[in-house]
Specification:
With about 60 residues, the chain is of the alpha+beta class. The protein has helices at about 35, 50-60; strands spanning about 5-15, 15-30, 40-50. It has one domain. The protein is built from two helices and three strands, in the order ββαβα. The protein has a three-stranded antiparallel beta sheet. Strand 1 and strand 2 form a beta hairpin.
């Protein structure tokens, strides 16, 4: 389990979109396993590598 405030690198693989979107996320909270019925954490993206942010925005704009 990563403590709240931890910074982690991420790689987002999207079918049909290469290369992957890379960046850094900060752990914002942990799930409540009993209430949410899932184990994990919520994060906040703090930075992207290269044009990753523009590519992610473009991906959402297409949907």
């Amino acid at each position: 389990e990563f403590p709240v405030g931890s910074h982690l690198h991420f790689e987002l693989l999207v079918p049909g979109l290469a290369p992957p979107i890379l960046g850094e996320v900060e752990v914002a909270r942990h799930t409540d396993r009993l209430r949410e019925r899932v184990e994990g954490f919520g994060g906040r993206i703090v930075s992207f590598v290269g044009d990753g942010q523009a590519r992610l925005h473009s991906l959402f704009a297409q949907r």
